[in-house]
Structure formats: structure tokens, C-alpha cells
Amino acid sequence: MDKFIITGGVPLKGEIAVEGAKNVALKILVASLLTDEEIVIRNVPLIRDVTLMLEVLGALGVNYRRDGHTIHVTHNYIHNAKVPLDVAARLRTSSLVLGPLLSRYGVATTPNPGGCRLGARPIDRHISALKDMGADIQYHSDDGYFYAKTKELHGATIRFPKNTHTGTETLLLAAVLARGQTVLENAAEEVEIDDLIACLNQMGAKIRRSAPRTIVIEGVTKLHGTEYSIMPDRNEEVTFAIAGVITHGDVIVKNSSRRNLGAFLDAYRKAGGKVEEMDTTTTRYYADGPLTSTDIATSPHPGFMTDWQAPWAVLMTQAHGLSTIHETVFESRFSYVSQLLKMGAHIEFFDPKVASPEAFYNFNWADRVDGDHQGVKIKGPTPLHNAVLEINDLRAGATLVLAALSAPGESVVHGVEQVDRGYEKIEERLAALGAHIQRITEE
Ligand code: EPU
Q1: Active-site annotation holds for 199
Q2: Distances from the Cα of 343 to the Cαs of 30, 218, 255, 432, in angstroms?
Q3: Cα–Cα distances in angstroms (integers) from residue 229 to residues 174, 199, 226, in the given order
Q4: What pLDDT does residue 117 have?
Q5: Ligand 1 touching residue 30 (CB < 6 A)
Q6: Direct distance between the N- and C-terminal alpha carbons of the chain, in angstroms, rounded to an integer
Q7: How far is the CA of 382 from the centre of ligand 1 (A)?
């Protein structure tokens, strides 16, 4: 159990490089199950979720070697098609192995996945689509496992009822080696999925986006090894951009991918944030005047990503006026609010008026529980003060680090392992920008 001690109020200045995307690295690691040849993955972030995924794959018989940000993965024969409960309970993406295991071995046993608790996070859309491809999948509530088997996965035309990022990836990983053609309609469009597609095509898969939200996969009999360098993590870039502005600093982000940040940059510029495009992969973020309150609503790509709304809330505590955030993707992604209130932020929950919530929201409306809200109103600017904070999920964790960096005085941030899931050595990299941040390992 680690905590951060942060003395805030220091402007962050200098250069910081974005690492590889967590939400690509995890999926390409799973793709290694699809071939007997070696996969070399470059630009893999050194984060806890990658370690957990390697544990999942290791338990399935996969061999790997890490060399800095490069991982060499080989798999010849799966001696065990069962994912261990303790690791899967900590990792959202563990259920992605269903596709490769079913297509190659005809059997897969995997627990209901864990990861950040942002609501119910069921995988009903994944399971139903895999059944359309010929999988027999039973969920046993007594042990929390999905038991899946098939004689053969076959192509199918599948229409997702709503957007699902990892659902789309699960089906890609299932369909590449299935017999015949699979068409995914209403498929997710997140750019991380395109990076996975590029890697799979390099391995010999036949995948193309034939129209908006439509992916066509021609099944092949075999995939081969490859070497692939994954894209930069756009969530890290947003975190560092906001870190610069809320500390009245000036941050230059290397390995920047502005083309993947359209909705963020629109809102950020509207709020008064300044962006200097220094070269194609270097971006400077700062503000030279007051910030203005700016409303956002999260949505699937190409909208304002749900992963950005928590750090955005910290920015809005420093903006003049009343701003709103409408979270439409997850039913419970405001765990950070109680912590920002401790720091003096003026934030209130509200429930935006929506004509047909069952159809409008990305989550299953029936999964909402008492206390879930879809909106917050933030009144600013409010100087934040130091506090003792508790992190509940990954993006909320980065958000509380940002808030503590902007607040004069010493804050203590507990639950740092959540941040370690998705950000590589964040304290060392922020310290290089001048942050006063120290990790304390608790016994
Ligand atoms: N949903 C269902 N049933 C399903 C699938 C999804 O009800 O079968 C609901 C979810 O509960 C959620 C909504 O539909 O309310 C959208 O879920 P989606 O499947 O699109 O999200 P995800 O795959 O669980 C991934 C990322 C998230 C990111 C979202 C949105 C990974 C490992 N996770 O989650 O990243 O916020 O897509 O882009 O790729 C993070 O990195 O911190 C993170 C949470």
C-alpha cells in the first residue's frame, strides 16, 4: 500500500513524454495467444495492468520476456484454458482471452472481470455476440466464472445494441481465426481499437472498417508473429495538459497525438487553455489568462472521452462561472467528487433531463443503483486546499493527484496502486516538471 505526499501550489514546467497506450498494450498482449510465433511489442508502458495481464497469460502457459518497454511474447501450447480468479478480479481486460481461447482451443473458462468499479460493467454484449458465433457460454454464479466452449467459431453478422470498446475488441480477437466472414455493426470507433486492428493485420488477419461503425473480418486459418510499436496514451496527454494549466505552469508534451484529442482540445481551447503545436508530436499546454467555465458531455469516440471527465472537473474548479459535466458512458464515474469537496471545491450532483434514458445512455439503464448520478455542476474559480484523499479508481486517482498539485500545502493521497495501474512512475515524471511529490510505501 503506497501513498503520495504532495506539496502543491508549485507551477509545473518543462517537458514530459507520453508512454504507450495502456488500452492498446493489454489487447495486443492477448493477441499473442492467436499465434505460435513470437510477438514483439514495443512502447509498452511499465504499469500494473500490464503486469497483471502478463500474470493472466502466464497462467495460461504463455512465455514472455521484458526488456524495458519491449515485451517478447511466445505461446506454443495452452496447458490450461482457465484464467485464475485472483488476477482476473483485478483486471478488466482478462475476459478478452475468451476469443483466442475459443477459436484455437474450443474452450475457455474465465471469471467475470474486475477492474475499476465505474458501475456494474457487465459483459453481456460480448457474451451474446460470441454466442452468435457458435460459442456455448454458461455463467455460474456460485463461482463467478464463465464456462465457454465451441466445436468451431463461425462468422456472423453481429449488431451491438450499444457501443462497447472492449466488446468490439473481444469480437475482433474471436473472429480473426473463425471460419468465414464476420461483420460487426455498431462497432466502437475508439482509436485504440484501430491500433489493435493494425497489429492483427500485420499478423496476417483480414480486418477492415467498411463504413462508419462497421468492421468486416475475413477469418483466416493461421496468424504469424510480428513486431509492433503501440500508439501513445492519449489519456496521459490529457492528464499532463491539465497539470500544466491548473498549476499555472507550462508543460511541453512529447509523443503527443493531437489528432486523437479533438474533442478535448475543442473544450480546452473554449475554456481558455492555450495549445502550441511545436511539431507533429510535440505540444505545449499553458494558459495566459483566466479560464472560462465550459460544459462537456462524455460520449464514445469521437466525442469527449469518459476517461477525461474527472481531470476536466479539476480544471473547471479553476474556471470562472458554472460548468456542467454530463457522464453518459458509465453510470457511476464521479467517485472523485467527494474527495474534491474535501478540498473546498463547489460541486453538486444533478440528473440531466433526457427524453429516453434507456436508449440515450451507453450503460444499461437498469444497472443504475441509488446514489448514481449522471451530472455534476461545478462553480469556480475556487482555490483548492490540501487534504487527505482516498483514490477509488484509476482516472479518479490521476485527478486527485492533479488537484493536490494545484492546492497549496501538503496533501496525502492514499490508494496509489490505482494510479500505478495506468500511469508509469507518475511521481518521478511529475517531479521532473518540478512537482513536490513523494511516494511512501506503507507496511
Ligand atoms: N457495457 C454493458 N455491457 C457490455 C459492455 C459494456 O453494459 O457488454 C456498458 C459498460 O458498463 C459501460 C458502457 O457500456 O457503461 C461502455 O462500456 P465499454 O465496453 O465501451 O467500455 P470498456 O470496454 O469497459 C473501455 C476502456 C475504458 C474506457 C471505455 C470507453 C479498456 C480496458 N477500458 O472500457 O478505460 O473508459 O472503454 O472508451 O479499454 C481506463 O482506462 O481507465 C478505462 C476505464
Answers
A1: no
A2: 40, 53, 33, 25
A3: 22, 9, 10
A4: 67
A5: no
A6: 7
A7: 32
Judge if the beta carbon of residue 124 lies within 6 A of ligand 1.
yes
User: How many CB atoms lie under 10 A from the CB of residue 241?
Assistant: 26
pLDDT in tens, 188-218: 999 999 999 999 999 999 999 999 999 999 9
CATH 1.20.120.230 fits 22-229, yes or no: no
Q: Pick the residue whose CA is nearest to atom 33 on ligand 1.
A: 23
For ligand 1, whether the C-beta of 306 sits within 6 Å is yes
Q: For residue 22, which atom of ligand 1 is closest to its CA?
A: 41
Please state the pTM of the whole predicted model: 0.97
Helices (H), 285-384: 309-317, 337-342, 357-360
Domain residue extents for the chain: 2-19+233-441, 22-229
Classified by CATH at the fold level, domain 2-19+233-441 comes out as: UDP-n-acetylglucosamine1-carboxyvinyl-transferase; Chain (3.65.10)
- Mean residue pLDDT of the chain comes to 95
| d(C-alpha 25, C-alpha 47), whole Å | 10
Residue with cell string 477525461: 308
Q: Is the pLDDT of residue 280 over 70?
A: yes
Does 116 contact ligand 1 (Cβ within 6 A)?
Answer: yes
Check pocket membership of 164 for ligand 1, CB cut-off 6 A: yes
Q: Which of 116, 215, 231, 376 is catalytic?
A: 116
